[in-house]
Amino acid sequence: MAENERQASYKPAQYERYEGGSPEAERLVFERLAREIMKVQVANRRASGAQGFERAFHAKAALGVENARLRFNDDLPAALRGGFAQPGAEYPATVRLSNASGMRGPDGAPDLHGIAVRVKVSAEQSHDLLATGFPVSHARDAREFVAFAKAMAGARNPLQKAFGLFVKLPLAVGLGTANRMRRNVQAATRHTVNSLARETYWSRGAMLWSEAGPVRFLLRPAVGGGPEPRPDRHDPNFLHRELARRLSRGDVAFDLCVQRYVDERRTPVEDGSVEWKEAITPPIPVARLTVPSQDITTAEARSAARRIEELSFNPWYTTDGFRPLGNLNRARKAAYRASSAQRHGTRFTPHEPLRNRILGAPVGFAFRVLNRYVPWHRLPVDLSLLNLVFLRKVLRRLNLIDTDVQEAPPKAEPVPVPVDERLRTERSYDGTYNDLSEPKMGAVGAAFGRNLKPVFRPDLFDTPNPVTVSRSLLARESFVPATSLNILAAAWIQFQVHDWVNHRRYKAGDRAVEVPLPPGGGTWVNTPGGPEESVMRFAENEGIELPGDKPPILFGNTASHWWDGSEVYGGDEQTAKQLREPEGGARLLLDGGHIPIDRTGIPITGFKDNWWMGLSSMHTLFAREHNAVCDALRAEYPSMGEERIYHTARLVVSALIAKIHTVEWTPAILATKAIDIGLRTNWEGPPRNWLNQLGLWLLESHSLTGIPKTMPDHHGAPYSLTEDFVTVYRMHPLIPDDYELREHRFGQRLETLGFNDIQGAAAESQIRKTGLADTLYSFGIAHPGAITLHNYPKSLTHFQREGEIIDLSVVDLVRTRRRGVPRYNDFRAGLHKERIRRFEDLTQEPETLARLKEVYRDVDEIDTVVGLFAENPPTGFGFSDTAFRIFILMATRRLQSDRFLTVDYRPEIYTPLGMDWVEKGGMKSVILRHCPDLASLLPRDASAFAPWRPVPPAENGGEHG
After folding, report:
1. Coiled coil: which residue ranges (predicted)?
2. Is 702 a catalytic residue?
3. At 146, which CATH number?
4. Using alpha carbons only, what angle is made at residue 52 by residues 48 and 57, rounded to the nearest 5 degrees?
5. DSSP class of 414
6. Is 127 within the bounds of a domain?
7. Alpha carbon of 757 to those of 236, 557, 617, 747: distances in Å?
8. What is the per-residue DSSP string for 177-217?
């Protein structure tokens, strides 16, 4: 009785010890081990020559049936009752019997064998029971298990297996551990198996059994069902044939038994290599598993077996009351999920050739030394490109920080619902299921990641006063143009940012940030018609609640993180459908070629905050482009339905936008030969230059093709855009305060307007009056502002938005501080640049230098935005080299992580017409498709974001305003 009471009072965590001292530390270990298991699958695939990936273990099935039954005994002991384990309860079960190797081989080869059982209790509840034909594991824990799997990966012949066991394994785990593991494996595989129906299978790891505490279970052949004639062991599939003969004559049954926990020494939970001996904890029969007599050679049976081969068994597909216990079992959740995802083509293992790993280390070190004396942008072009390759490697390794709140320790869960087949060929409305193995990754609501460890300093939120910083260092005093660009470049980047990032704000008046005005700073009116106040007030961002005492520095993105055109199409199904033509048409709604407006004069589109005429021109252009793609698809593929046309057109337009940004906008704002080559390499692959090709082959062969020809790779952290990325894309100085609208045929001036005359509701009436062609021409011949200090648009320093009047430059500073983005010097150092030690290291301009010293007490206090704007950029760059480091990290990541821009960027998904549309298209082709009269005005040898050719006004035409 005392023993029963002691067992019943067992708490699951009592004897579980987490590697590294905490569930989170252990989770990181398991994630790394899961990636190693995926590499084992890759090695096994190469060695076996299999077309696809097999299961990492138990690859070859001898039996798969869906019509088995599990029935609990009528006399089930009271102490073992709980959950689905009730006297006389009976449930349908799926059963798979298999060999244990990760490669298919003849049944007569030395091997372990296993059983997987899925007990279906209800539509919402099931339990996966996995067991192997030996009572003890060769590995104490997950590290040893993975080390053994890696040592034996791809080993097919005796010599390879011996090398793995006697050389690779001792090097990985030590000689003593390797000897113990080898003895266990040899004892297990020495056993001759003639029938999988007559074998016993042990769980080898502990599990919770409701209130009874830890148990191990085993499945042993039921009494009866005598032995069959000895099979032909020369037949490579004799185990399957033996089962077929046996089942044709009668049922196959196993008794499910449990061994109860006694103490940590004799029945340990954490050590999988210790046998729970029957003399210490006798097996107690609790249920019978019956595979009914049947013909498993029929077409129906073969179809069922194929369905089972597509299943993913995982001991964590259960309930909390029956969850697995111990290190090995905790690791299985991550490992099995990763292995299954790779097998089903939803997760991928990047391959780095040995030559790249060997040569990469010394070359990377050489560049780090070289960059102490010569920055990358002052090197010859070929050398600077290679330098950037290695800088990006460093950034990927050190500057991708996972901010997701991860599950640790693992929790039981139901069997995942199969992915909707449509989501394999369509972008979802909200960004879910881009990564089919992690459906919520990058979706609407997913948290912004980090490139640098956040610094949360509430005591410095108002130090120095952000209003003082803005007025002294940011505010535009006279317009400084960016003469290599046109205003379309300014409109484009806002168009893109609206697709990428948006922090949710509380409604005006609900919860506000208050910024005190500095002494002598006057007053501020925070709402239209409101009183004069001594503080600036604007809506606070809504953060994500974090467990424990963590500071509130995690924020969700109300847009999806993917490059999916959500600014055009909307970020949810309801919005997306409202933007389409009635009756489920594929085309987007347009009103006379322009975006429809609501009763307030605001456009009806995917994202319309901060609306102005430049943004309207981009939305109008790409809404028309979507409709042009739809029309072309309908003409080329008459049998294609409207829903498929819509989603295919969205894929095409989104990919075209990504291409334009990658190979046109970015080289325009970072106007150097190295960047132009590097970004075209991202999309198209490197130039056909033998030296470039050889260098990449030796040092980073991954870059030998454009990213769209590669597999998705998240580089060790779940994909998301980051708070640091948001910070470097604060490019508001690009916006001029006044605009001259001109007619493109004769060059006549139409109007001169201020920004407030073309923003908000006024934007749509103005673009309709001017026309899209003249709007594009007017912006194409005019320059945006330079991204520098003292050039923040005046119109944005007193800006009305959603019932608030804000100074957007102050908001930019405050948001960056409160979101925990490090100040400029720490930001710079975190991106592997030398810290500045004095203000003169940042600028030599006397007036700016004096103001910096007046505003900040020391260089470590300089705001990130201020430092980025003040920094002297490389020749041709429109923004700083420090900001550029975030860019080179995240620019490729946005492509590389996206399934629809890598592995599913193919004709089967996009259609051949769609692929051709993207590959041959660009910003010029989009403009000319919808405004063909502009053909002679676009730059000949530059992108559409470079200044256009202005038409001289006709001598006798005059001008009018």
Report:
1. none
2. no
3. 2.40.180.10
4. 65
5. P
6. yes
7. 80, 30, 15, 22
8. HHHHHHHHHHHHHTS--S-GGG--EE--S-EE-GGG-EEEE
- Under 8 Å CB-to-CB from 611, ≥6 apart: which residues? 602, 603, 759, 760, 763
Query: Residue 836 carries which side chain, given as an amino acid letter?
Result: I
Domain count, the chain: 1
Alpha carbons 56 and 178: distance in angstroms, whole number: 21
**Residues in Cβ contact with 797 at an 8 Å cutoff, skipping those fewer than 6 apart:** 470, 475, 807, 808, 809, 810
Kindly state whether residue 110 falls inside one of the protein's structural domains: yes
Residue 10's pLDDT band, with cuts at 50, 70 and 90, is very low
Residues counted in the chain: 961
Structure confidence by residue, pLDDT tens digits, 681-717 = 889 888 877 777 888 888 888 888 889 999 999 999 9
Q: At what angle do helices 690-699 and 381-398 cross, to 10 degrees?
A: 20
Q: How many CA atoms lie within 13 A of 251 on its CB side?
A: 14
Contact residues for 892 (Cβ-Cβ < 8 A; gap 6+): 392, 682, 707
Q: Is residue 368 part of a domain?
A: no
pLDDT of residue 536: 93
Which residues are bridge partners to 98 per DSSP? 61, 114
Residue 43 falls within a domain, yes or no?
Answer: yes
Give the residues across from 95 on adjacent strands.
65, 117
**What pLDDT does 226 receive?**
62
How does pLDDT run across 571-623, given as a tens digit for each residue? 999 999 999 999 889 999 999 999 999 888 889 998 888 899 999 999 999 99
pLDDT tens digits along 889-911: 999 999 999 999 999 999 999 99
Q: Is 580 in a helix, a strand, or coil?
A: strand
Angstrom CA distances, 128 to 96, 100, 214, 227, 244, stand at: 11, 17, 16, 28, 24
Place of tokens 């003082």: 468
pLDDT digits (tens, 9 = 90+) for 422-440: 999 999 999 999 999 999 9
Judge contact between 412 and 323, C-beta under 8 A: yes
Instruction: State the CB neighbour count (10 A cutoff) for residue 52.
Output: 9
Q: Which domain holds residue 265?
A: 2-343
Q: What is the mean pLDDT of the chain?
A: 92
The catalytically annotated residue of 58, 127, 498, 715 is 498
β-pairing, 252-260 with 738-742? unpaired
Greatest CA separation for the chain: 110
- Written as one letter, the residue type at 194 is N
Model pLDDT for residues 211-226, shown as the tens digit of each residue: 999 999 999 999 876 6
Residue 751, SS3 per DSSP: strand
